[in-house]
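Contributing new records

If you add data, match the layout below exactly. Sequence lines come first and carry their own label; structure lines follow with theirs. Keep one chain per record. Anything else will be rejected by the validation script.
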Amino acid sequence: MTRHPLTQAGADRLREELAHLKRTVRPQIIADIAEARAHGDLKENAEYHAAREQQGFTEGRIQHLESTLSSAQIIDVTRLNPGGKIVFGSTVTVADEDSGKEIKYQIVGDLESDIAKNRIAVSSPIARALIGKEEGDEVVVNAPGGERVLEIIAVEYV
C-alpha cells in the first residue's frame, strides 16, 4: 500500500470535509431524493435526476477522502528536528531575484496542495528545488515558464 504524506493540518481539513459530507450533505441529498420521488413519474423528473447525480458525486468524494485518510502518512512538522533545513511541511519565505517579490510557501502533500493558498506539492518543481536547503541559500527552479532564481529568506516549522 502506498503511503501518501499529509501534514497534520491537511489531514484535519480532509477529516472536517469528510464529516461535513457525511453529516450534512448526504442527509440533505437523501431528503431531496425523497421529495423528488414524491412528485411522481421519475422518468421525466429533473429534480430526481439532479439529486441522484449529486449523490453519486458526493459518495465518490466520501470514498476518495476515506481512502486518502486510511493510506495517509501524517507528518507533524512541529515534532521534526530538521536543523534549519527545508523539509516536508516547512513554511518557506523566498524572494524572486528577478522581481524582488517575496512569497511564502508551505510544502505539503500532493493531495492537499492549493496554489491559491500558497500550499505547494512536495513533488512540484519549486518544492523539489527547496527541499534540503537552508535560510540564505539561493536555488534555481526549472519551472514550466523558464528558470527562476529564488533566495531563501526564512524557514518556519509550524
